[in-house]
Structure formats: structure tokens, C-alpha cells
UniProtKB/TrEMBL annotation, chain A:
Originating organism: Salimicrobium humidisoli
Gene Ontology molecular functions: ATP binding
Keyword rRNA processing: no
Record-linked Gene3D superfamilies: P-loop containing nucleotide triphosphate hydrolases (3.40.50.300)
CDD domains membership: ABC_Carb_Monos_I, ABC_Carb_Monos_II
SUPFAM superfamilies (alphabetical): P-loop containing nucleoside triphosphate hydrolases (SSF52540)
Keyword flag Nucleotide-binding: yes
Pfam families named in the record: ABC_tran (PF00005)
InterPro entries listed in its UniProt record: AAA+_ATPase, ABC_carbohydrate_import_ATPase, ABC_transporter-like_ATP-bd, ABC_transporter-like_CS, P-loop_NTPase
Name of the protein: Heme ABC transporter ATP-binding protein
TrEMBL record, chain B:
Membrane topology, record value: Multi-pass membrane protein
Key words of the record: Cell membrane, Membrane, Transmembrane, Transmembrane helix
Transmembrane segments: 7-32, 59-77, 84-102, 108-129, 138-156, 190-208, 238-258, 278-298, 318-340
Subcellular location field: Cell membrane
Main location: membrane
Highest taxon in the source lineage: Bacteria
Pfam family, one: BPD_transp_2
Protein name from the UniProt record: Branched-chain amino acid ABC transporter permease
């Protein structure tokens, strides 16, 4: 059989760890090949080896049957390998075309011949159905379009093999659908794609083959049509995984959180939350579904005091928490798992133990007469680390050196430990692998069962459908409909999220 | 191979050695003997009790101005205004010291406090502007330096004296002079100020690492977004950090006003104590103990350098170049870090 890429028995060591141990990856022409593994399994390392950023200790790489020595990324480019990174490498203030030609600008008498480049880019875009405006500035186009600009960049440079690193992590469900189509078009045109992901549904939908890596070891390659998501998950994690989160029926009590006619403006003064009404009862998980940018971020910021609302009412157990400072909101019994754990959730350069007391460092017994009691702080942190199974060498390790899943576990330990009346979880599983997702979902349900109100904001429909007891669909700053998870499906939710009200009126 | 902590010690030391080495190369290329040059520097700093006393005197304000820069840096702020805060601190200390009569000990303490308050006010303004309006502290502090310089000149001419270029000496009750130490060091200008500097270094360490306020300040410096999320008041912490930083700087000025010179004079240019403090803080990795060590190095270089032209014939300009090279190597410490990592990787 003819392979476009063969990575045979690759081994890559770093001081102290073996990141890749005897991994073989063989990709055929015209194939979408998934590279599946948990966070830290060694996917990125393997791709960096292919890209010439790391030199493997053992193993060989063959491109189109020829054994090659990829010394640096330029060699990889010349061999027709292009990579679309998870974090885009684009200059915000440049146009799509300018970004694409950056580094290999076509010149005419010493000046950049941007007109010619634009024509070429536009032609490429049409050929592959990418629908990108070659003259638009990057900062003016959506994230999905930016990703396509990245894809165009690799195509423009003659890539035959495209590596897409977690491409759907930043996309809305609709954009994911479009990307799927683009990937199919690309392989129909004879390109080959390596898709790095830990989302099983995507693999089942678009991929032909799937190579699984677990803890640096190659587990094997399977034909996607001969397998199913459950089998892939257990291959990836190394044990049985349940997808349906086990939960009993909710027994909601009194109204805990009550939001009435809330209005919130964003930093530019644009009203993002418009007359929003929502309530969450004790012992209930309410999921807020919606496409990113419909005011969810502003809603959460207003609830937690990070942003001032311009009008409305917010009460928690009949006490107003409207426009209180973040500390007062916390003290009123609100816990918050923030959307961006690196920006808001953690002091990355502080020990994980001190991150555990981020909101309680000033309270006794952590602090007495203005002096911190570190002995006490670290003792508490140690017990939380054990209880929540945060994998870290010790409580003095910097938060930065923990994996994403363990960072999130630490945040959840901190937030849940305060026994809050209301737990706000914003995108709590973003970027995490199946094992960590399972853990976090179970914790949310555990909190619910203790009679606490839980507000879950997520762009992942699976998560919303699995975990919520009631779903509120947010569109254009309002809750446009509330539905029961058992009475709806992705199709209906997708339509609601796009702003189309269903015929039947949902109970409010 | 190295832990982060080891790096923080190894990198500055290697930087200093590289700076000295580069300085030697320059001395050689201009036809001077580097061994003689550095020997002259050593003698000039530690050669006898007088030089030792002078070195301690020079180190004292460096510790305080280094602490000022380091403290702000730990809270995420670049206080370029230490220079101006030094000047107003100097002026305030001399004003209290020369214009009021108070009992001994009390007088000197009040004068020191006045210096700290003056420096604190000079830090408060950029802190407030940053916290409330988001004006970048670098711009404001640079401007505040000029305001301090010319305001001080005009106060000395118009308020403290009648058109003179310098004030009278501070009262004996307000002086930091240590006659027995001066005698011991053949009448160098050494004074009790070094005790103040060491106490302040301890204060900074304690404040940042042991107190609740210090935790907030470091948190805001490390990640203001997470600090806000955690309920800390970012703006208030910025102001507090700038005021405390200014306070340290003001004390550095008091060292000169109450210790070294005993008066304040009209000046056409900056003292450079504040600007050198930036380098001291950088070399000392913004820690209290690091600042003390870096200040000792800078003080030694400055005082030792004075002896190089006379004993080894090396012009003072070359000495300034050596000092600049050391700062350059420290600032590019990450390159040294990178080389170390590279070698440790190859070694495996």
C-alpha cells in the first residue's frame, strides 16, 4: 500500500520522561487520519518530530516512500507538510492575503505584489470552497474564518499533507459542520489530513483511520468504520469509560438564583445581555446553551461581580447580589469556575497550594492580624489535593506545571470546598480529556445532589444535554427558550441557538 | 540540571563575571593592564578602612532605591520615578532636619518619616492615575522626576534659603552621622543609614512574603485578572505598591540628606541613585536579599572605580563602560539561561 507519510517506531525522550515510545503512524493519500490521545499523551511531540522541531532518538520518517531527514520546519514545508496550530499564528492587523504571503511575498520591482497574491488566494479559496475574503483584515473576521485563513496559508505554500491541531476546540457547532465539509473537499482534491483531537464524535464523523496514543505509547491504528466511540475511548484512556453521566432525577427546591430583566453592556458599551430573565433552584443544574458571543460571558461576569450591570435585579436566596464587588459576591455564597482558567482561575506562577486559598487567604485561620499562616494554608491544600485527586508532585509546585485537567480539578476543589449556595461553571471542561470531563461532570452533579444551585454555561451541546436538568437557550442577550434535556435533541437546540424559536412554547 | 532557584543565583553571577571579562578585554584593547585595573578597583573599595567606609556609604542608598524598584516590580509596576522620589525624600528630610528643633532620636525619626511620606506621595500620583484612569506608570513617573528636580531646586532657593544654592546643615539631632564609625574609617562619610537600609530590606521581605497584603500585591503583580476574580481590589493594590515603593525611594534620599551630605543643594541634573536602583533591582532579581547583594556590587564598583585612574591609569569612562557591560549581561540573562539549557540538553 502507498503511504504519503510513514513515521516508523518513533522514540523521543526528554530528561526524565519518554514522550514518544515506539509510535508508528502511517497515513495514506486522500485519507483523514485521526491522532487520538489524552492531553499529555504525546500527540504534539509526535507532530513536532514530523515537523522537524524535535529530533527523535529512534525511528525513521518516510514521505511518499522516500526516507527523509526533517531537520527543521522549512524542510517539512518543502516536503509539503503544513500545520494549522490550535493557537493561530496570524497578524491581527494584516489582511488574510498579507498573512498568507508573509515570509514568501511575491515581489514586483522590490515591492510586494499584493494584487497578484490576492487573486491567487481568492482562487485557492474558491477551489476548496473555503469562502474566505482575501482582502479582509484578520481582526474583522470570525474565529472560524481565521482558521480557514490558516488552512489557506498551508495550501498556498503547496501543502499536500495538512495537520490540524484540535481544530474544533474554538468553533461553534455550525462552524464545525462547515469545517467537516471543507476537510472532505480537501481529501477529494487529493490532499491528506492528520487530525489531532480527543473528541471521539468528530473522529466517528469524518475520519477514515485512527491512530491511538496512550501515555507516549502507540496503541495501534484502527479503521473507523470498524469501531465505535466507546471502544476508541477505552483504547485512549486504558479503561472503560461511560459517556452518559449517571445521575438521578433532580429534586429541585426553592428558587436560589433569580435574575430579572438584567441588562449588561460590554467594554465597548454595546448591550450584550438584554432584559434577561432566568432562575436556578436549589438542587438543580441549569445549562445555558448558546453560540459563543451571545452574551454568556457578560452574564457570568455580571453574576460574579466582575462586570457592572446597567439594569435589573439579581438575588441569591432572596438577598440581592446585584452589582456587588467580586469579594462580596463570593462571600454571599457564589462559587465560580471561570471560562479561562489561565487568565482568571489561577495565579500560574504561584504554588498550587496558594492557589487553593485565592479567595480565602484573608480569612482566619489562613490569616491572622494581617500575617499569613502558611502552615495552615498548605495543610488545607494538601488535604484538598488528596480529596480531589489533583495530580501534582506536591502542594508547593507552581500551578503552571500542572496539566490542564489537574489545574481545573484544583479550581473545582477550591470552589466546591467553600460550600457555595450557587456554583457557576463556565465552560468547565474546555480542552480537557475524557477522564477529566467525567470527573468534573460527576462533581457538578454531586453538588446538585447536596442541594446547591448549579449554573452551567457551555458551548458543548453534549455537555449541556448530559449534565443539565433544565436547558436555557441564550441568543442575542436573551433566554429565548427553556427546554428539558429529555424532550429535546441536538437538532432542536442547534436551531434554537441560531435564534429560531420552536413551534411549541417552552415552559418558563 | 538546575532548579529555577539555582538559576536565579547562577545567572547574575555569570553575568557579572562576563561583564568583568568584557571590561578586561576593553582595557586590553585600549592598552591598559586589566589585572592592575581590577586590583586598583579592589583596593579602592576595600583597600583600607577609609575606602571600606565609603563603600558602605555608597551601598546604603543603592539598597533603598533598589528595594523601591524591586517592590513595585513585584506588584507588576515599573517605577521609573524612583529618581524623583529620592529627590523629594532628600528635600523633605533636610527640611525637617534643618528647620525644626526636636529632641534627639525623635528628630531623626521624624525626618526619616517625612522623607518616606514625600516619596510616597510622589509614588501615589502615578499609582492613582494608573489605577483610576489606566495611564501607564512609566510615562507619569518619568514626568514626575522632572517635577521633583525643578520643584526641589525652587524650594531650596525660594523657601528654605534666600536665593542660596544649598541649605544649611541639618541639626545634630536629625543627623545620621556616626562619629565613632567615621573615626574608625579615617573620616570617611559612613553613617548609621546602612542600618535603616537593612531594616527596610527585612521589612520588604516580611511584607511581601509573610503578610496578607503582600500576598495580594504579589498576586496583582502576577495576574491582575485572576486577582480581580479572587476579589482583590487591583486598583487599590497598585496605589499601595506605588506608595510603599516611593517610601523606600524617599528614604534613599534621606540617606544622602541626613547622612552623606547633611544638606540639600540646587542641582542641574539627577542624582542617578534612582536610575541605578533599576539596575540593582534587576541584578537582585527583585528580592530583598538579592537587592542587598547587588547594591554591594554596585557600590563597590562605583567607589572602587574612583581609584582606577590614579592607581592604574584607567580612565573613569572605561569604568563606566565596565559597569554598563555588567548591566547588559544581566539584562540578557535569558541568553545565559538558554546556553545553560542547551548544554545540559546536549550533555544528556
Amino acid at each position: 500500500m502507498d503511504y504519503v507519510i510513514e513515521m516508523l517506531n518513533i522514540r523521543k525522550e526528554f530528561p526524565g520522561i519518554v514522550a514518544n515510545d515506539d509510535i508508528t503512524l502511517q497515513v495514506q493519500k486522500g485519507e483523514i487520519h485521526a491522532l487520538l490521545g489524552e492531553n499529555g499523551a504525546g500527540k504534539s511531540t509526535l507532530m513536532n518530530v514530523l515537523f522537524g522541531l524535535y529530533k527523535p532518538e529512534k525511528g525513521s520518517i518516510r514521505i511518499q516512500g522516500e526516507e527523509v531527514n526533517v531537520e527543521d520546519p522549512n524542510v517539512a514545508n518543502a516536503l509539503g507538510i503544513g500545520m494549522v496550530h490550535q493557537h493561530f499564528m496570524l497578524v491581527d492587523t494584516f489582511t488574510v492575503t498579507e498573512n498568507i504571503v508573509l515570509g514568501s511575498e511575491p515581489n514586483k520591482a522590490g515591492t510586494v505584489d499584493i494584487k497578484r497574491a490576492e487573486k491567487e488566494v481568492q482562487a485557492l479559496s474558491e477551489r476548496y470552497g473555503l469562502n474566505v475574503d482575501a482582502t479582509a483584515k484578520i481582526r474583522d473576521i470570525s474565529v472560524g474564518m481565521q482558521q480557514r485563513a490558516e488552512i489557506l496559508k498551508t495550501l498556498y505554500r503547496g501543502a499536500e499533507i495538512l495537520i490540524l491541531d484540535e481544530p474544533t476546540a474554538v468553533l461553534t457547532p455550525q462552524e464545525i459542520k462547515e469545517l467537516t465539509q471543507i476537510m472532505r473537499d480537501l481529501v477529494n482534491e487529493g490532499k491528506s489530513i492528520i487530525l489531532i483531537t480527543h473528541k471521539l464524535k468528530e473522529i466517528m464523523q469524518v475520519c477514515d483511520k485512527c491512530t491511538i496514543i496512550r501515555k507516549g505509547k502507540g496503541i495501534g491504528t484502527v479503521d473507523v468504520k470498524d469501531t465505535n466511540a466507546t471502544e476508541l475511548a477505552s483504547l485512549m484512556v486504558g479503561r472503560e469509560v461511560t459517556f452518559k453521566t449517571d445521575k438521578t432525577k433532580a429534586t429541585p427546591g426553592e428558587n436560589a438564583l433569580d435574575i430579572k430583566n438584567l441588562k449588561v453592556k460590554d467594554s465597548r458599551g454595546v448591550e450584550m445581555v438584554k432584559d434577561l430573565n432566568l432562575h436556578v433552584r436549589q438542587g438543580e443544574i441549569v445549562g445555558v446553551a448558546g453560540v459563543d458571543g451571545n452574551g454568556q460571558t457578560e452574564l457570568v461576569e455580571a453574576l460574579t461581580g466582575l462586570k457592572k450591570s446597567s439594569a435589573g435585579e439579581i438575588t441569591l436566596n432572596n438577598r440581592s447580589i446585584y452589582n456587588l464587588e467580586p469579594r462580596k459576591v463570593t462571600e454571599a455564597g457564589v462559587a465560580h469556575i471561570p471560562q479561562d482558567r489561565h487568565k482568571h482561575g489561577l495565579l500560574l506562577d504561584f504554588p498550587i497550594g496558594e492557589n487553593m486559598v485565592m479567595q480565602s487567604y484573608y480569612l482566619e485561620p489562613n490569616s491572622k492580624r494581617g500575617i499569613l499562616n502558611f502552615k495552615n494554608i498548605y495543610k488545607k491544600a494538601k488535604s484538598l489535593i488528596e480529596e480531589y485527586d489533583v495530580r501534582t508532585p506536591d502542594e508547593y509546585t507552581k500551578a503552571r506545571s500542572l496539566s490542564g485537567g489537574n489545574q481545573q480539578k484544583a479550581i473545582i476543589a477550591r470552589e466546591v470546598d467553600r460550600s457555595p449556595d450557587l456554583l457557576i461553571a463556565s465552560q468547565p471542561t474546555r480542552g480537557l480529556d475524557v477522564g477529566a470531563i467525567e470527573f468534573i461532570h460527576n462533581k457538578l452533579i454531586e453538588e446538585r445532589d447536596k442541594g446547591r444551585a448549579v449554573l452551567l454555561v457551555s458551548f458543548e451541546l453534549d455537555e449541556i444535554l448530559n449534565v443539565s436538568d433544565r436547558i436555557a437557550v441564550m441568543f442575542d442577550g436573551k433566554i429565548i427558550e427553556e427546554v428539558k434535556p429529555e424532550e429535546t435533541d441536538e437538532q432542536e437546540l442547534g436551531l434554537l441557538m441560531a435564534g429560531r424559536k420552536s413551534e411549541k412554547q417552552g415552559e418558563a | 540540571m538546575f532548579s529555577n532557584r539555582t538559576f536565579n543565583i547562577v545567572v547574575p553571577i555569570v553575568s557579572v563575571l562576563l561583564g568583568l571579562l568584557a571590561g578586561a578585554v576593553i582595557m586590553v584593547s585600549f592598552g591598559y593592564n586589566p589585572v592592575a585595573g581590577y586590583a586598583a578597583m579592589w583596593n579602592g573599595a576595600f583597600g583600607d578602612a577609609y575606602f571600606l567606609g565609603e563603600t558602605v556609604r555608597q551601598v546604603t542608598p543603592y539598597i533603598l532605591s533598589g528595594l523601591a524598584v524591586a517592590f513595585a516590580m513585584r506588584a507588576g509596576l515599573l517605577n521609573i520615578g524612583v529618581e524623583g522620589q529620592v529627590i523629594v525624600g532628600w528635600l523633605a528630610a533636610v527640611w525637617i532636619g534643618s528647620s525644626f528643633g526636636m529632641p534627639p532620636v525623635v528628630h531623626v525619626l521624624v525626618a526619616l518619616l517625612a522623607a518616606a511620606v514625600a516619596g510616597g506621595i510622589w509614588g501615589f500620583v502615578p499609582g492613582l492615575l494608573k489605577a483610576k484612569l489606566g495611564v501607564h506608570e512609566v510615562i507619569v513617573t518619568i514626568m514626575m522626576n522632572y517635577i521633583a528636580l525643578y520643584l526641589s531646586n525652587s524650594v531650596i532657593r525660594g523657601v528654605l534659603t534666600d536665593g542660596e544654592d544649598r541649605t544649611g546643615n541639618v541639626a545634630e539631632t536629625a543627623s545620621l552621622a556616626a562619629p565613632w564609625l567615621r573615626e574608625l574609617t579615617f573620616y570617611s562619610r559612613i553613617h548609621y543609614g546602612f542600618i535603616v537600609a537593612l531594616v527596610m530590606a527585612f521589612t520588604m521581605w516580611f511584607l511581601l512574603n509573610k503578610t496578607t497584603r503582600g500576598f495580594e500585591l504579589r498576586a496583582v503583580g502576577s495576574n491582575p485578572f485572576a486577582s480581580e476574580y479572587a476579589g482583590m481590589k487591583v486598583g487599590r493594590n497598585i496605589i499601595i505598591a506605588m506608595v510603599i515603593s516611593g517610601g523606600f525611594a524617599g528614604l534613599a534620599g534621606a540617606m544622602e540628606g541626613l547622612g552623606t551630605f547633611q544638606y540639600a543643594s540646587v542641582s542641574s541634573g539627577f542624582t542617578n541613585i534612582g536610575f541605578d536602583g533599576i539596575a540593582v533591582a534587576l541584578l537582585g532579581a527583585n528580592t530583598a536579599i538579592g537587592v542587598i547583594l547587588a547594591a554591594i556590587l554596585f557600590g563597590t564598583l562605583k567607589i572602587g572605580a574612583l581609584n582606577m585612574p590614579t592607581e592604574a591609569g584607567v580612565p573613569t569612562e572605561l569604568v563606566d563602560i565596565v559597569i554598563a557591560l555588567i548591566i547588559l549581561f544581566v539584562a540578557s540573562g535569558y541568553i545565559i539561561r538558554w546556553v545553560f539549557l542547551k548544554f545540559s540538553k546536549e550533555g544528556k
